[in-house]
C-alpha cells in the first residue's frame, strides 16, 4: 500500500498488523496521496520541534509543559489511524502556544536573563511578589527581577522592552548584576502590572505613568530620541518598490489626480518604463527623473533588482507633532543573478537595519493574483527574523501594488501568502485587513506618461482618476495604522542573533588580519633591523562607493625598511570609474590603510604583542568555526583565505623588491601562522564547542578593544555615520508633503 508510505517514514514502529486504516470519506480516499503527504509533513515537523527545537530554546525551563508536548506526541503515535484530526489539532495548538514562549525564553537568556517560573514555587498568593523578592534577592544589591506574564507582555510590549532595556543599561555599568525574569503566567496570582524588584521607585513609577497600547497618545508622549517613523520596504525583484515610493510621495503631495496634473510630479527615484497606446499598440519608452552617478538604480539588466543598494527617502511631516517618515528602499529578492545575489541583497538589508535605532514597520510589497511566491521570499523572512527576533512580526505590513486589476483585494496571492506564513516557525505574523493595504501604482505611471505628452482616452482617464483617489485613501490609512496601532521595534545594542553576530564577525576579518600582519612586521623590525622603530596602522575613511581593485597593478611603498602594497582604492558607481577590470575583481572596503613609522619602540612590550597576536589567532579560529558551523554563511574559512591572500601579496612585493629581506621574513612568519591556524581549526572541529551566542558576543566585544583593531573599527563606524545620509538618503520637503495627511488622532 504505497499511499501509506509517508506515515511509515515518520512512524516505522506502527507498521504491520497494528496499523489501522479507517476511511473518512470518498473525497479523502480519492485524494489520499496528498492527504498522507501533508499529514506526514506535519508529523515530521512535530517531531523536530518537540525533540530538537523546543529543548534547545527552553534550555531546561518549563519542563512540565515540554513533557506534556512529548506525552501528546506519544499519544499520537499510539493512536495512529486515519481519524487523527483531533489528536493532530490538539498537539498543533499546544505547540503553537509553546513555541513563541520558548523563543521568548531563548531571547531572554541571550540578554543575560535567568528564567524563573513563579508557579514552581510554593508562595502565599496574597504576598507572592514580596516573598519572591525576599527569596531571590535576600539583601543582595546585585540582583534585578523583572516580573511579568504573557498577558501583560502581549498587551504592553513597548513597556516590556523599556523595562528590560533599563536594567540591561544598568548591567552595562555593573557586570556583576544578576538579571532574572520572573514569569507569573502559570500561577493563580493576578499580577496587575510589570514591575522590577527590588522595587525601584524611579524606574517603576516612570513606567507606570506611560499610556497603554490602546490609550490616546498625547503630544508630549511622542517626543522620542528619534523623531523618525522608519518603514523598511521589502519585495521581490520587479514587484515595483521604487515605483511605489515615487507614487507614495505623490499621494502625500496631491489629494487628486487633477492637482497632480497641474503640478510637476515628485520623482524621488528615476523611472524608466514602456507603455503602449493606440489600436496598433505603439510602444513608447518613458523616462523621468535625474539619472546621475550616485543613483542606486540599474535599468540596464532586465530581471535584476533595479535598486542595487539600500536607500532611504524622508518625508518631512513636521506638521504632525514633529514626525518624519523614512522609507528604506531595498534591493529586491528573487534576483535572476541567483541565490548568491539574493544573499548579497539580504546583507544590504540587514546592514541598513543594523544602522537604525528602531523600525516602526516592515512592509512587504506583493502583487495580487500571483501564481506562486518565490522561495527567496521565505528566505528573506527567515533571515530577517533571525536578525530582529520574533517580536518584530507585530510590525509587519503587506502592501499590494497594481491592485486595481483585482478590485483592490489580494486576489489569488492571499492563500499562497497565508500558507507560507503558516509554515514559518514564527506563527503569529498578522495578515488581516488592518495591516494590509492596496495601491495602484499604474496611476503614477499614467501621470508621468501625461507629462511626457502621451494621451489617453476618456475611459482610461476616468479609471486612473478613481485609482489615484483610492491610493491616496490607502496611503492615509497606512500612516494612521503605523502611528496609532504599532509600537516602534527597538534596535538596541542589547539584542543578539546569529545573523547579527555573523555581520559583526565579517566586519572584523580585515582588521584582525591586518593587525596580525603589522604585529609580525614589528617583531621582525625589532629582531632584524632596529629595536627603536615601529610601524603603526593609520586607517583612513573612504567614500562609501569605494572598492579595492585586486587586479590593477600596484607599486609598493616604503615604511621604514619594509615595503608595503598600498590599497588600490577606486570609485565605484554601479561600475568602476577608474578601470575596466571585471566587477568580481573589486572588493568593497570600509577604509584604506596608511602607515606611520615612529623612531622609537612600540608602546607595548614584545611579550604583550606576542600574547595579543595569539589571542587574535584564537579569536579568528572561534569566529571561523562560528561562520561555518553555526551561521553556516560560508563553507570556507574566511580568515585562512585572507591569510593566503596576504601571503600572496607579500610574495609579489618580494618579487618586485628582490633585495629586501624583511618582507621575506614576514612571509615565513605568516606561513607559520597559517600552520598554527590550521592545527587549531582541526582541534575545534574534532571537539566542537557548545553553541553559545553570548560567548561569541563577549569575544567580539573583547577583540574590538584590542590595539590596532580598535582604531580600524573606529574609522569604520565614523565612515558609516559620515556617509550614511550623504548619497543614500533623499529628503522630501515639508511643503510638498503637506496638506494631505489625515490622522484621526495625532501620532
TrEMBL record:
Taxonomy, superkingdom: Eukaryota
Full protein name: G domain-containing protein
Keywords recorded for this protein, A-Z: Coiled coil
PANTHER family per the UniProt record, alphabetical: G DOMAIN-CONTAINING PROTEIN, IMMUNE-ASSOCIATED NUCLEOTIDE-BINDING PROTEIN 10-LIKE
SUPFAM superfamilies tied to this protein: P-loop containing nucleoside triphosphate hydrolases
Coiled coil regions, renumbered to chain: 59-97, 153-180
Species this chain originates from: Rotaria socialis
InterPro entries from the UniProt entry: P-loop_NTPase (IPR027417), Sigma_54_int_dom_ATP-bd_1 (IPR025662)
